[in-house]
Amino acid sequence: MLIRNLPNFLTLCNLLSGCLGIQLLFSGFPLSASYCILLSGVFDFFDGMVARALKVSSPIGKDLDSLADMVSFGVLPGFLAFHLLSANYDGGLFSGNDMEGGLVNGAYLAYLGFLVPFFSAIRLAIFNHDTRQTDSFIGLPTPANAFFWCGLVVGLENGTWWLLAHPAIIALITILFSVLLVVPLEMFSFKMKSMGWKGNQLRYIFILMAVPVLVVLKVPGFAAVVVMFILFSVFQSWLNKRKFADKEV
What we know:
mainly alpha; Four Helix Bundle (Hemerythrin (Met), subunit A); two-stranded antiparallel ribbon; 2 strands
C-alpha cells in the first residue's frame, strides 16, 4: 500500500517545495525561492516516472499533481514576477525587500505578475481534459514556464540577464509567457516511443544544444533553454504544417 502511494507522496513533496518557495520569497530570499522551483521540478519528474514504473494511476493522483503544479509552477513564479516588477532598482535588483515601498514608487505593473497563476490555472485545467496532449503539448507547459522564471530571477541577480533588468521589459515578458501557457501552439515533449534517431531528431538536437547552455550559464541557463524550447516548437509546428500542405497538393 505504501509503495503504491509513493507517487502521491512525491507529488506532495512538490507541493511542499512550492509552499516553501513562497515563504522564502516573503521572507526576503528570492534566490532561494527560485531554487525551490528546481526542487519541485525534480519531484514532479520522479512522481510521474515512479507512477509509470509501478503501473499505478488514479484520478486522485492526477488531480493532486495539478494542484501541486498550480502552487509550485503557477503561484510561486507569479509571485517571483510580482517581486521583480516591484523591486527597488536603485541599488541593485534585490536591494530593497520592501514590497510596499516598491508599489508606492509607482510599480503598479507588479500586479501583472498574477497573470502567471491566472493562465497557469487555465493551462492545467485544459491539460487534464485535452486528449490531444499525450505525445506533445498544446501551449507552454507550466513547469517550463516556472523554470524560465527561476533562470530569469537568478540571472538578473548575478548579472547574466542584465539587459532585461527593466520593469517594462519584465512586464512584456510576463504578458508574453502568460499567453504562451494557453496559446494553441503544439510543443514537443520528451515522451519518445523509441530511442532511435528517426522521429526524434528535434529532441536530440535540442538536448545537444541545451546541455552546453546549462553547463556554461548554470541556473540562469534555464531561461535560455526554455526560450530555445519555444523556438524549436515553433519550427516543428511550421514543418508539420508544411508537410501537411505538401500532402494535400
